[in-house]
Amino acid sequence: GDSVTQMEGPVTLSEEAFLTINCTYTATGYPSLFWYVQYPGEGLQLLLKATKADDKGSNKGFEATYRKETTSFHLEKGSVQVSDSAVYFCALSVNQGGKLIFGQGTELSVKP
Amino acid sequence: GAGVSQSPSNKVTEKGKDVELRCDPISGHTALYWYRQSLGQGLEFLIYFQGNSAPDKSGLPSDRFSAERTGGSVSTLTIQRTQQEDSAVYLCASSPRQGAVTEAFFGQGTRLTVV
Fold first, then answer.
1. Neighboring chain A residues of B90 at a CB cutoff of 8 Å
2. For the segment B17-37, what is each residue's pLDDT rounded down to a tens digit?
């Protein structure tokens, strides 16, 4: 079945460090890919998305490129801030408007 | 409303009791999802409603779990004969229009504790 696998956390970085959170997927169809973020005490919200191969989603300094050949959608940010501390979820949706399947989440902690 | 609303925000129940969790989606959203988030776990898909189509119930963990969506709007997730392993945060989300890749908007969740 369709699934998403993320790197395990927690990930602890110093402010201004480079961030990569790995995400790979398995899908029977041609999925759309998403990153959601859950800040402490808040609900999940969409961070970025990509709908076809080689698309790059970006928002708030975060980027992820849809790599069909490696079935990956890794999240990157060049310089993290303390305010980026949160749990990050990779997700996919197969077929337009289809259900969202989430990975297990990766907790990021950024220290000053 | 301004966003997805879930009630109650917290629920403590005794093992063996039934509970009902409510979700009010954003007005006009055709898709509605229920997920379960356990401590240290990811988001476990439970059920998905899309417009007038039959719901996708493939994620419901047992026949103690059921959900309905009345009038294409409000949804209720019911857990019968609750067990301690049902303790988790239950999240509801809704999405606008069918047939498009759009974001899901999440509620704050209901924290269920079975004692």
1. none
2. 999 999 999 998 989 999 999
